[in-house]
What does this fold into?
Amino acid sequence: KNQVEQSPQSLIILEGKNCTLQCNYTVSPFSNLRWYKQDTGRGPVSLTIMTFSENTKSNGRYTATLDADTKQSSLHITASQLSDSASYICVVSVFSGGYNKLIFGAGTRLAVHP
Amino acid sequence: DTAVSQTPKYLVTQMGNDKSIKCEQNLGHDTMYWYKQDSKKFLKIMFSYNNKELIINETVPNRFSPKSPDKAHLNLHINSLELGDSAVYFCASSQERDSRGTDTQYFGPGTRLTVL
It folds into this structure.
């Protein structure tokens, strides 16, 4: 069964600190892995997309890593800001029937406190 | 300039009613999607249309019927609403250029449906 699991479920950090969010997946056939940020009451916004051959990708203070052998990914946030408070969702794309379908994790809810 | 817009943002209705949610994208994309986000916050694909043609239809009850009048619009009609239909529904769009499927999906703001 295609699954995406994230940890921790929630996290509180102080402004300016770094943090790392984890994602494990059991998805086949793997197409690509994405990280999304979802603010409360808003739709998800894409942060990074990585294919099988990529093991790291950055977007400003966000850096995602991918280990396709162990089927793990992480999202590292550097020098956190209050605006980073949101849910971060790991999403794995499955290529099936000629099309890509996204499998979503439940997300990690991050709260950045002053 | 809203890229993907949905109306209404909130929808409260009684069980058994029929309702529609509208979605429009002005990005020129040829693929549109409907997702359901349940109370546990999981987002699940419901439907996907490419150039007005249905390409993904997950095991969604046939009370849900998507309609795509043109490639910029994908509306969701729900018949005989049930309590379990309460959720946030997101529309999204993308421009699929190759089989790697790495194109970004742009999401709308969501429609919170509450069935009483």
Summary: Chain A touches chain B through 24 residues (CB under 8 Å). The mean pLDDT of chain A is 93. The first strand of chain A starts at residue 3 and ends at 7.
